[in-house]
Amino acid sequence: MTTIEQGADVSADLTHQLREAIQDAEFAPHQRLIEADLSERFGASRASVRTALLNLANEGLIERLPNRGARVRAITVAEAVEIVEVRMELESLVARKTAQSLTAEDAAVLRELRGGILDAMHEGSLIQYSRLNQQLDRVIWDASGHATAIGLLERLRAQSARHQFRLSFLPGRATLSAPEHVAIIDAILARDPEAADHATRVHLAGIIAVLRSQE
C-alpha cells in the first residue's frame, strides 16, 4: 500500500469516527471542531483531520466558517423530516433485501433483539431501548448486503440522529414504536419482503408525524 493510499484509509476511518461521535451527541450543535483538539483526541495528523472535516462538510454534518474553522451544523426539524422521508425509501429497500436473503445467523440475532426491545420497553429503560433500536437498524442494514444503501443511510442517520434520540424520550413514545419494530422483525423473520417494506414505512411515517408535531 502506498503512502497516499494509507493516508486515504486514515482519513476515511477518521471521517467515520467523527460521524459516529456527532451521531452519538458527543459534539453539540454549533460546537466548534478545533483541528488540534481532534488530532490529539483521535491520534491523527492535522492533515487527516482537515480531510475528515471536509468530508463531513460535504455530507452536511458540519459547516466551515470563514476564518473560524468548522462547527457542527444544527439540523432543523424541517430538514430532519426530509431526511426521514429519504430514509423511508432506503430502509424499506434494505428491509426487503434482508427478508429475501435472511440467514439463520441473522435470524437468531433478530429474535434476540426482538425480546430485548420488548423487555426494555416494559422496564422503561429508554437508553437501553434506544441502543437496541440502533443495533436493530445496523443488523438489518448489514444483512441486506446493499452497500450503496448502507453508505447513504449512515450519512442520513448521522444528520438526523439528534432529533430521533430526543424523540425516543418523549412520554409514551416507546410503547408506540416498540410494536412497530417488532412488526418489522416479524416480517423479516417470515421472509416476507412486502410485509417488511410496509412495516418499515409505517414506522418511519410515525417518526415523521412526531417530528412535525415538534415544529
Automatic annotation (TrEMBL):
Q: Give the keywords, sorted.
A: DNA-binding, Transcription, Transcription regulation
List the InterPro entries hit by this protein, alphabetically.
GntR_C, TF_FadR/GntR_C, Tscrpt_reg_HTH_GntR, WH-like_DNA-bd_sf, WH_DNA-bd_sf
Positions of the HTH gntR-type domain: 8-75
**What is this protein called in UniProt?**
GntR family transcriptional regulator
Species assigned in the record: Microbacterium kribbense
